[in-house]
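REQUEST ID: PR-0412
SUBMITTED BY: lab tech R.K.
PRIORITY: routine
TASK: structure prediction, single protein chain
INPUT:
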Amino acid sequence: MSASETLSPAERESAGDLAVVPPPAAPVRAPKVRILTSEQLFAGCPEVQIAHGDALYRLRQTSLGKLILTK
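STATUS: complete
OUTPUT:
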């Protein structure tokens, strides 16, 4: 016997208007993030070099204020 067979006609009509609500999801924890301003990062220099693993990357500012990262 299904759930709709056990309900009266009035209950079936009002049950059609009910939405199934899923259980609340576990809270999402944001990863730790360190925020630096570009002024802090560059400290008056036109370029910053970043050692990452065995590679060295260059981060520089363009004349329009954009950032370019190259390997």
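NOTES: The mean pLDDT is 83.
REVIEWED BY: pending
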